[in-house]
User: Which sequence fits this backbone?
């Protein structure tokens, strides 16, 4: 309700300015203990995924908190897990502004942020400062724009080795982002030979880390919605073969059919929000049918209501994530999605 009142004023600001203002206020509210008032009154709905115990199946997608600065405050929204990042080894400013655009008539965003973040050193310090241990934490890693594509694996291995120790004493997973449309040629890593080389390197590094630390931290791969349907079985099979623990479906889309003619529709970048819902849910279903429970699917893309969250679960997702829905609906969306999933599970006995 409060967010509904505040949104018209927030939307009068430039989207990126609004983001900084909103998170500055969130930090101040958390420091005063006020964000605890945002916690929805919903029964726990625990689920085990990737060998981790999630207090509920609704999480925050990467991108909203790129530097892991607001983990504890965001946890007060009632999420069962929070994914932060994408972080790159070195700090980088991302793409030139303007780079974030609202399409209110479509309940959508277009962004070409370009992995703007403060780098691994700051990210690690921020995560270490987080005190919440009652939710699962996802740490999303990527490559620097300046790193040549033939050395991309070096950035992912650096990221994995740096963030891995952060998850030794708290529940969490590492997410590998090879699907953003805003880093040049990044999506080429989803190709057959490229993906195999990356997964081989990640599996070897994780085996070494698990042996050194005495614990295997789960690994998830985030894919694009713009893959052809006949490419999805290949990717699913590769993930199983190389012992990846989950697939996150999906990132933003470069397609514009659903928003054609709207202001900003032709801006370069990834489209998220309501226009992505149908395709992302379709990808979830295709992957789930191919995987047959071998590894779980985390559904993300266009979850703007409790019904959208239920649709992802019905398609085969074990967990769902929110991003653009939070921008348009505010924290109340978390409780709505949790209630809807819980009602559906009680109705079906799932």
Assistant:
């Amino acid at each position: 309700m409060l967010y509904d009142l505040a949104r018209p004023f927030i939307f009068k600001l430039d989207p990126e300015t609004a983001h900084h203002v909103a998170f500055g206020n969130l930090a101040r509210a958390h420091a005063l203990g006020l964000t605890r008032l945002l916690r929805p009154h919903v029964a726990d709905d625990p689920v085990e995924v990737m060998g981790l115990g999630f207090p509920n199946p609704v999480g925050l997608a990467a991108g909203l908190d790129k530097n892991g600065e607001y983990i504890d405050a965001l946890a007060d929204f009632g999420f069962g897990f929070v994914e932060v990042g994408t972080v790159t080894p070195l700090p980088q400013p991302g793409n030139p502004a303007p780079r974030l655009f609202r399409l209110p008539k479509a309940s959508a965003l277009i962004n070409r942020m370009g992995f703007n973040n403060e780098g691994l050193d700051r990210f690690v310090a921020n995560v270490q400062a987080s005190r919440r241990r009652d939710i699962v934490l996802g740490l999303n890693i990527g490559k620097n724009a300046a790193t040549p594509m033939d050395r991309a694996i070096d950035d992912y291995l650096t990221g994995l080795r740096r963030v891995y120790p952060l998850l030794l004493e708290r529940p969490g997973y590492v997410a590998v982002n090879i699907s953003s449309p805003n880093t040049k040629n990044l999506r080429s890593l989803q190709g057959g030979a490229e993906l195999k080389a990356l997964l081989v390197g990640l599996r070897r590094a994780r085996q070494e880390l698990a042996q050194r630390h005495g614990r295997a931290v789960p690994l998830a791969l985030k894919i694009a919605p713009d893959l052809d349907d006949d490419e999805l079985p290949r990717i699913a099979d590769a993930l199983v073969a190389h012992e990846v623990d989950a697939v996150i479906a999906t990132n933003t889309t470069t397609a514009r059919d659903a928003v054609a003619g709207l202001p900003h529709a032709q801006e370069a970048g990834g489209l998220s929000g309501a226009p992505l819902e149908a395709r992302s849910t379709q990808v979830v279903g295709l992957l789930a049918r191919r995987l047959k429970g071998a590894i779980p699917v985390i559904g993300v893309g266009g979850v703007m209501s409790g019904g959208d969250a239920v649709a992802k679960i019905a398609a085969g997702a074990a967990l769902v994530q929110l991003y653009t829905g939070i921008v348009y609906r505010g924290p109340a969306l978390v409780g709505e999605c949790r209630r809807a999933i819980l009602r559906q599970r009680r109705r079906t006995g799932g």
